[in-house]
Amino acid sequence: MNSGSYVTLPVKPIPVSREVDVVVIGGGASGIGAAISAAANGARTLLIEQRGFLGGMGTVSLVPAFCPFTDKEKPIIRGVGMALMERMKRACKEDFQREYEDTLDWVPIDPEVLKRVYDDALLEQGVELLYHTFVSEVLMSANNRRVDGVVVVNKSGRSLVRCSYIIDATGDADIAAMAGAPFQKGGEQGELQPGSMCYLLANVDRKSFATFLEESGDSGQLHQTVERAIEEGALPEGRKSISGLAWVSDYLVGVNFGHVFGIDGTKAEDLTRGAIEGRRLAERQLRFFRDYVPGFEGAHMVASGEQLGIRETRRIEGDYVLKAEDFMEARSFPDDIARNAYYIDIHMATSKGNMTFTHLPPGQSHGVPYRVLLPLGLDNIWVPGRAASSDRAVQGSLRVMPNCFAMGQASGTAAALALRIDGGSRDVLIAELQAKLVEQGAWLGESFAEGSVG
Ligand SMILES: Cc1cc2nc3c(=O)[nH]c(=O)nc-3n(C[C@H](O)[C@H](O)[C@H](O)COP(=O)(O)OP(=O)(O)OC[C@H]3O[C@@H](n4cnc5c(N)ncnc54)[C@H](O)[C@@H]3O)c2cc1C
Q1: Separation between Cα atoms, residue 105 and residue 88, nearest integer Å
Q2: Spans of the chain below 70 pLDDT
Q3: Is the CB of 238 under 6 A from ligand 1?
Q4: Tell me, what's the pLDDT at 453?
Q5: Which of 82, 225, 362, 444 could form a disulfide with 448 if both were Cys (CB 3.0 to 4.6 A apart)?
Q6: Confidence at residue 341, expressed as pLDDT on a 0 to 100 scale
């Protein structure tokens, strides 16, 4: 938004505060995977995050659980992401450890534990962390194909971070967009999936809730109870069930429920409205829980997301655009850097719309090619995560945290390999990248293991 008038600020020199090999912008799942892997492979790595902690949507917006790491038969997202989830489990209370020890799908997030696990994991790997810092501009090379540095703004002032390689893990492709990369946003009419304000409820009684489900025959997502509350005006029109309840303990539950429509997560004004509307909706939902759901009579909201959870903004146009057909046919590619089996999960753009779900059969997954990380026209940037290059349908699947870790791991490893040869993102030898990923715990599919992709 602007008021229509412009001013020209005086030209002022700014200090160069840091010079690093790889700068990762954004500390969500994709940035975490990228920073750990770049550093593990020898690059001097700096991670810049606007908040005071890591985790992105999983901690900032209290998204309550990790989506599946398996294809329902075996783990397919391994490597950095799975190791971090396991580390979170080990750092949780004993009852959490016991309950989720063998679980790889839908493991609840204990956000305070996870923040500390992430801090430690990145610091141990030698990543430099710079929190409370926002990237506002890019410094382009003379031919406009490389980003030579990013302008950061924080309490210390405004400065330039000079770097050889950039990993744009902002989830919104902020940096690639500033550097001129082409992108798509939302659907054909510009419609976007809604945001959700997730929160944590304490003082709930899981046993009473389980008894209620058993006796009432309602589903774990409370379809019947939510429909009744909508009919009686206790909840607004919209999705007729709860997206997810994630039990962190028998008395603490993470909630992902309901939608805030018409929010563009790349606009501060929309994010502001989203935060206010999201909190208002969460309060109404709290009253619903107390009044309608046994076990929740004394529920106490201890935290809501610092930011409305954002499902969809920009998708870069990369060297390859991963398409719905690739998903449906479970295709593999010669340059696969990960596998994905999560279902296509597109939330409706308005309260009258419908949700779209498309599942692959158990045991099946498709490949995620390296090219989806490479924005057109730029030679030293990777864009893993929610904004990677795909059509809208595939974004509805690729965007979940396990995939973001895997794409991040591939980006960070590739940046470190590019550094070794002093080359660009497209000079990385795919076989070397794949071998490195496998050596460092990633899984690229049976066909890769057998050496016959195509
Ligand atoms: C309501 C909701 C429910 C979901 N449910 C699940 C679920 O159950 N399980 C699951 O696995 N996934 C779920 N997802 C999807 C998943 O959480 C996100 O898609 C995923 O976290 C995206 O990861 P990312 O690293 O690409 O971006 P993000 O997690 O958004 O991280 C981006 C980070 O970059 C920082 N940043 C952005 N711009 C700048 C800048 N200019 N300067 C500095 N820092 C910047 C942000 O502060 C943020 O920390 C859900 C998403 C939503 C919104």
Answers
A1: 14
A2: 1, 448-454
A3: no
A4: 41
A5: 444
A6: 97
Residues 125 and 38 grouped into a single domain: yes
pLDDT at residue 450, as a whole number: 46
Length of the chain: 454
How many A from CA of 322 to the centre of ligand 1? 20
Burial label, 46 (beta-carbon count in 10 A; 0-12, 13-18, 19+): buried
pLDDT at res. 237:
87
Say which DSSP state 59 is in: H
**Domain-terminating residue out of 304, 332, 357:** 304
Return the ligand 1 atom nearest residue 308 CA: 53
pTM of the model: 0.97
In short, whether 25's Cβ falls inside 6 Å of ligand 1 is yes
φ/ψ of residue 70, rounded to 5: -115, 170
Task: Evaluate whether 56 touches 29 at the Cβ level (below 8 Å).
Answer: yes
Cα–ligand 1 centroid distance for 399 (angstroms): 8
DSSP class of residue 2?
Answer: -
pLDDT at residue 452, rounded to an integer: 41
Residue 451, pLDDT score: 44
CA distance 65 to 44: 31
Residue 175 CA: nearest ligand 1 atom is 41
Atom of ligand 1 nearest to the CA of 387: 26
- Round to whole Å and give the CA distance between 228 and 179: 50
Placement of tokens 């009744």 in the chain: 228
Nearest Cα to Cα of residue 252 among 304, 299, 210 = 299
| Residue 14, token pair as written in the block | 């700014």
**Phi/psi of residue 338, each to 5°?**
-170, 170
Residues 343/359, Cβ–Cβ less than 8 Å:
yes
Domain that holds residue 344: 16-187+312-449
50 and 174 part of one domain: yes
Per-residue pLDDT reduced to its tens digit, 412-423: 999 999 999 999
b/e burial code for range 242-260 (CB count within 10 A of at least 16 → b): bbbbbbbbebbbbbbbbbb
